[in-house]
Amino acid sequence: MKNKLILPIFFLIFSCLNNIQKDEYSILTMNTILTITTYDKKLTTKDKQAISNTLLELENKFSISRESSIVNQLKKTNILFYYDEEIYHILEKSKLFYEISEKKFDITIGKLASLWGFYNEEYKLPSEEKITKTLSEVGFNYLTFSSNSIKLKKDIWLDFGGILKGYAVEKIATYLKSRGFKCGIVNLGGNLKVFGEKPNKTKWKIGIRDPRKNGEIYKIVELNPEESIATSGDYERFFITNGIRYHHILDPQKGFPVSNGVAGVSVITTNATEADAYSTIMFLFGYEKGIELARKKNIKVIFLLENKENKIYEKNNF
User: Fold this and answer.
1) Is residue 67, in this structure, part of any structural domain at all?
2) Would 314 be classed as within a structural domain?
3) Could you tell me if 304 and 263 are in contact, meaning their C-beta atoms sit under 8 angstroms apart?
4) Alpha carbon of 49 to those of 25, 33, 52, 53, 206: distances in Å?
5) Is the pLDDT assigned to residue 123 strictly greater than 60?
6) Is residue 2 very low, low, confident or very high in pLDDT (cuts 50, 70, 90)?
7) CA-to-CA distance for 241 and 215, rounded, in angstroms?
8) What pTM, to 2 d.p., does this model score?
């Protein structure tokens, strides 16, 4: 299976930190790049090994590209017995977001994503007949789990892509703080968390990528200590056929990529796992329903919308 390296969605703005000694560590993981930036001390060899082991363990448990993962083990059988608090926690979180999203955030979407070619980059527009057939094997209601088992009522495939990177960011930031790091940034693909107060006492500045101009910044946002930001966009994995953009954020109830005028959604919360999931949910919901959910949950959100003239414009709630 081929994997495409996902380009950064956020740009770190360091112009105001030129006189600060910083340390930076990067590692290729989860089909993207993890970058950790610290300002008070350097990562030790022990720290780097612990972080690498954490990421490897998460991939081995949840990644579609690892044979050992519960994703691939469940493809072979309709029941899996395990004892792992982390697996149970991720499943519980996924169920919660499934309910909050009115069944649109669905980790059982794997077969549908595969049908569209989003796993191996062999993008294609499936027939409506194939989409309808595949939809019969999508649905969180076909999955039951407990603290030591997962059971499938149908031959469904799991996909943790809407939550795993955010969870990893939160876990690594927690580790760094436990090791005495007071100030830094954890950035994994489109999921980012800052912790501690910036050395020069100003707010953290993060640049959000322009969804239609590769490599350019659309907007700079300021984050408070302990805030996380995640973005879901229609420009990460997509193909264009007959002038129509088909992207990887699929509606599990319709079988097609969402088409609601949203090009990107950036969510800011104090928890990276939640930021990751809510950015997907609000993209699926669209602006009107998404902004309503943001107000209800007291979440900061930025919608980048595209008008009929293909111009990007912004709406937010802060």
Assistant:
1) yes
2) no
3) yes
4) 12, 16, 5, 6, 28
5) yes
6) very low
7) 23
8) 0.93
